[in-house]
Each structure stands twice: as C-alpha cells, then as structure tokens.
Amino acid sequence: MVQITISEKITQACPDVHILAITCNIHNTPSDPQLWEEITQAEQEFRKQYQLSDINKIPAIQATRQAYKRLGKDPNRYRPSSEALCRRILRELPLYRIDTLVDLVNLISIKSGYSIGAFDRDKIEGDQIILGVGEAGELYRGIGRGELNIEGLPVYRDRIGGIGTPTSDEERTKIEISTERLLMIINGYSGLPGLEETGRWTAQLLRRYVSADNLEGFIISGVDQMKISL
Q1: How confident is the model at residue 1, as a pLDDT?
Q2: Which end of the chain is more exposed for a tag (fewer CB within 10 A), N or C?
Q3: 201: Cβ–Cβ under 8 A, 6 or more apart, which residues?
Q4: Phi-psi group of 203: left, alpha or beta (phi > 0 → left; psi -120 to 50 → alpha; rest → beta)
C-alpha cells in the first residue's frame, strides 16, 4: 500500500475528513453489459428518490461542498464529481461509457455520494501521496477537461505533482484498459460513518467485474490509519 498522509491545511479546514484507500490487482475490459444493467437500475432509482434541489443535501456531497468553501473554492463552479454525475442523471443525460473500471467507479459514486479517485498505481511516482490544497498557477490537467484551476481544491500529490481532486483526476495517472494495479481513494469529508460499508461493497464490485485480487483497504484520518477487511 502506498503511504497516504493528510496535510495540516486539510485537517484544520476539514477535521472530520476520513479517506478510504483501496489497492488491488485488476483486469480491466472495454465494457460489461451486466455492470451497465446495474448502472441503469441505479439511475432509475436515483430519479425516483431525488430532485435537483435535493442533490446538495446528500451527506457526502454536502460535506465535500463545505470542504471546498472552507478552502476558498466555489463548489458551484467546480463541482465534486459525484455531484456532477447525479446532476447528469436528473437532467436525463446519458452517462459516459469509458471502460469497465471507470464505469464501476461511477456507479459507486452515484450510490454513495462520495467523490472517488481511481489511479493507475504504476503511473504514480514514488511511494507516498499527500492530500493538500491546490496552489495558484499549479499545473493540473483534468481528465477530459484540459488545464484545471485547482487553487483551493483538495489535491492528492505524488512525488512530481497532483494526481487527483474530488472534481477531476489528472491525465497523468488515469485508468486505462492496460491498467493492472489500481489505487482507489474514496473521499469521506462527511466523516467515518458509512465509509467502511462502502469499501466492502466496492470490493465486491471489483471482484465481480474486474477480477480484483490482493485487495487491501485502509481508512486514513489526520491522526491515524486503520486497516480494514475487504
């Protein structure tokens, strides 16, 4: 497991933050019809349960938006990825089909409200990742978004720079069909409740759809780290 630490800037602004990091070996595929049946069902259930005005009240989304505000970022201009997905569903827009692993991550995000980073472990530089705050002028290429202004956003950095924010992951470490080792980070700005349960469900999906093995999971806060059974 790569070592992940949370900076003091983050813990001061967001004292309840807990992140769940999962690593595993996987076999990615272009698409999976059974997974898309699950995604379609999740979309239908979401439309029955929520209206656009309800999205910001989902605890995990609400907490991530509050984290943005505390760090000086407008969450209406730079929406957390989970919120963007949920809004897309309620606007009757089709979800993007990328590949099985990315589609699976989107399903988890829709059903849990967590913004999730998914990275090719072999593209991460070094054995340490630090969750800090984006700085003015920091170079960051969001996947499919071009250069992204991450000043004031929570950002994960490896040895050479940013790899992920709750709004968008970075092109440099993105998941591809060829990805064999996964690092997934589930951002729990709403605290610990629900995070471990989401991790276990995530592990089930990873085993079912991308043949995951050697799964390890750790819940990390500003003060400690706890290994969990997946």
Answers
A1: 78
A2: N
A3: 108
A4: alpha
